[in-house]
Amino acid sequence: MTDISVLLADDHPLMRESFRALLDASPGFTAIGEAGTGAEAVRLARQHRPDVVLMDVRMPEMDGIEATRQICAETSAVRVLILTTFDLDEYVYAALQAGASGFLVKDATAAELLNGIRLVASGEALLAPRVTRRLIDAFTKQGKPLSGTPRGLETITEREREVLTLIAGGLSNTEIAQHLHLGVGTVKTHIGRLLHKLAARDRAQLVIAAYESGLVAAQGAGWNSN
């Protein structure tokens, strides 16, 4: 199995050095470059096509949100994992819209960081329930505008709608299976169909589709679980 290639994008050299030291010491990972600005992150992502970009939000020249948008617009093969100073970062929703596949808090443990990179590289989304609950709060409290029903939503089945609602609530596949009394394999099949029908690249985009369509607010299921 080939190593997971990671591009490190952060404007603090010490932060990049610490991430590189961790990756260099961990089998299965390769740090293929470092970027100190958003513009440099876009250029290096275009040049090296890493599996994952570890992206800080606040950077000079171009912030991490715009860099994520440009990288994800160019290719679906490169996944972006956003680094936030706090899990209540106000940029969470914008980063998801830009194409980010997940979030990590900067004080995450080494194990959490490596597991997050593996998860995102495999095509999953790293969205903790506390993050998805904050997104829903943003819709209800701030009245974020809806963009209308995402293309393909009218084609999903009632069971797929239930699965999508629970995904938007931050539930894992195992938790969804338990909630709906299904096998985990069946849940994965439903998710695969949702990805296809909604033309979504990963689980994070399914979350955005559920929020923007009003599905979560309309059904109110799943997202308030601990």
Automatic annotation (TrEMBL):
It comes from the Bacteria. The modification 4-aspartylphosphate is found at D56. Residues 5-121 form the Response regulatory domain. GO terms for biological process: phosphorelay signal transduction system; regulation of DNA-templated transcription. Keywords: DNA-binding, Phosphoprotein, Transcription, Transcription regulation. This is Response regulator transcription factor. Residues 149-214 form the HTH luxR-type domain. One of its GO terms (molecular function) is DNA binding. CDD domains: LuxR_C_like, REC_NarL-like. InterPro entries: CheY-like_superfamily, NreC/VraR/RcsB-like_REC, Sig_transdc_resp-reg_C-effctor, Sig_transdc_resp-reg_receiver, Tscrpt_reg_LuxR_C, WalR-like.
